[in-house]
Amino acid sequence: MANAHQAAGGKVEKISLLRVLGPAHVWALGVGIVLVGEYMGWNFAVGKGGAYAALIACWFAGLLYTCVAMIDSEVTSTVAAAGGQYTQAKHIVGPLMAFNVGLYLVFAYTMLEAANAITLGYLVSQVAALSGYTGELDQTPFIVLTILFLAWLNYRGVLATLTFNLVITAVAFIAIIVLFLSTLTGTTALNHAGLMAGDASLPYGAIGVVAAMHFGLWYYLGIEGTTQAAEEVRSPARALPFGTMAGIITLLIAATLTWYVCTGVLPWEFLGDGVNGSVAPLFDTARLSGSTFLMVFLGIGTMFSTMASANGCINDASRAWFAMGRDHYLPQWFGAVHPKFRTPFRSIIFLVPIAILFALGAPLDQVITFSILSGLLEYTFMPINVILFRRKWPLDTIKRGYVHPFHPVPAIVLLCLCAVTYFAVFLGYGTQLIAMVGFYIVVSLWFHFWRYRFVKRGDQFTMPWPRPRGY
Asked: Which of 120-129, 233-242, 432-441 has the lowest average pLDDT?
């Protein structure tokens, strides 16, 4: 949406988001949000089922997110507007589903932003300890200042924000490659053979593999955020599919290499211990390598990955919140665009204290779980969405920027993997799962009985499509 702005000569000029992004920025947004999952969080899957369970979960989660990327690339290159999956749901399914999907997006990204800030605070404390600081460093100022700085960057413009993400994400990815190559040259000793025997292989059997799927999602959680750039890319039909598919390929490589180097160096018990174990596995692996260069480089990579993820999360959460405000699903006040910087500035500012509250008041594994659950609810919607999309508007009725192959197989696979992951989450965090589902039921009732009266149905359908088949 655009703001009404009185221009010179008495003409009313509309202010909208700027179309300034290319495929590289889409890649930086998707990979930037997710790559922190290689630097922290994925290792909780080791605690759930052992090192090999974490690898199996990594690949099955990779299949899940490949389906997500394929489906998103088709639908978003056709529904090219801010809000991503929220806007898709609005056009294809209906208002109640759209409202819920919008909330899934905002909570998934805001919780992920909080997790990134927690990790960054931990890194600062570790750097202080390595520098000889003997006291207990207060991480609070670093957590708060990180969120405030990145919110300010987002406030100032999307091009600078995602160009910054492009640079620091590339550095973080190169750091993983360098650590892997160092293992091939003998700089770091690996002990994968030890994983093949005794309790280290699959300590909890098949159920451990299923349980590991919970945190296996953390390798890739957020790649679907590329859709939030739909209204700000120069060529949605080209940039969105290319950036998203290149992003999932990058993450599949990074995830596998991360598992390889970390499980080869760190004991699986230390990797999977959520209380006294590793918070930043790649950084800990580099510390044990004996190389100061690797330790510094992976420390920088870890810091850059957390900043890139938090930066992208602010971008994506604010676009979803902005789109909902623009459509009156939330107060229209949130649908404003800054007249100079052309960003959804009110949505950016509003979400800052929420992220800070969770970053300071919740443990890391709980924050990660809330983000995963919100994302999982969103992924469950996507198979329904794409099946209805193909049924209402078959391939020969509207132009698509990308057509994902093998339909409806990716949708069916995605739905099955989501069902397995729900069970995996229930095994360890059943209370949180029930609480979050209950929360979304309550807000759905609020929307249905109160907020929906403010929504103008006639203004919802902005795509120039023919009448759906069968209607």
From this structure: 120-129
Instruction: Determine the Cα–Cα distance for residues 251 and 457; give it in Å rounded to an integer.
Output: 39
User: What string of DSSP letters covers 390-445?
Assistant: HHHS-TTTS--S---TTTTHHHHHHHHHHHHHHHHHHHHHHHHHHHHHHHHHHHHH
Q: How far is CA 375 from CA 106, 149, 425, in A?
A: 10, 25, 12
Lowest mean pLDDT segment, chosen from 46-60, 280-294, 400-414, 450-464? 450-464
- 147/57 Cα distance (integer angstroms): 31
Query: What's the half-sphere exposure (Cβ side, CA atoms, 13 Å) at 176?
Result: 29
Are the C-beta atoms of residues 38 and 32 closer than 8 Å to each other?
Answer: no
φ, ψ dihedrals at 3, nearest 5°: -85, 150
Is the separation of the CB atoms in 202 and 208 below 8 Å? yes
What separation, in Å, do the N-terminal and C-terminal C-alpha atoms of the chain show? 28
pLDDT digits (tens, 9 = 90+) for 152-171: 999 999 999 999 999 999 99
- Whole-angstrom Cα distance, residue 316 to residue 117? 16
Buried-exposed string 407-423: b where 16+ CB fall within 10 A, e elsewhere: beebbebbbebbeebbe
Long-range CB contacts for residues 269-275, cutoff 8 Å, separation at least 24: 271/43, 271/46, 271/47, 271/51, 272/43, 272/44, 272/45, 272/46, 272/47, 272/48, 272/50, 272/54, 273/47, 274/44, 274/47, 274/365
233 Cβ neighbours under 8 A, 6+ residues apart: 19, 21, 22, 25, 26, 80, 239, 240
Which residue type occupies 216?
A: G
Q: Within the chain, how many helices (H) and strands (E) appear?
A: 16, 2
pLDDT digits (tens, 9 = 90+) for 366-410: 888 889 899 999 999 999 999 999 999 999 899 888 999 999 999
Task: Label residue 406 left, alpha or beta by phi (over 0 means left) and psi (-120 to 50 means alpha).
Answer: left
pTM: 0.92
Residue with token string 């451990």: 208
The structure tokens 């180097």 sit at 261
276 band by pLDDT with thresholds 50, 70 and 90: confident
The tens digit of pLDDT for each residue in 88-143 reads 999 999 999 999 999 999 999 999 999 999 888 888 888 888 777 777 888 999 99
DSSP string across 284-295: HHHHTTT-HHHH
Task: Single out the residue of 19, 9, 425 nearest to residue 239, CA to CA.
Answer: 19
In CATH, which of 3.90.660.10, 3.30.465.10, 1.20.1740.10, 3.40.50.2300 is domain 20-459?
Answer: 1.20.1740.10
- The answer to whether 60 and 134 have CB atoms below 8 angstroms apart is no
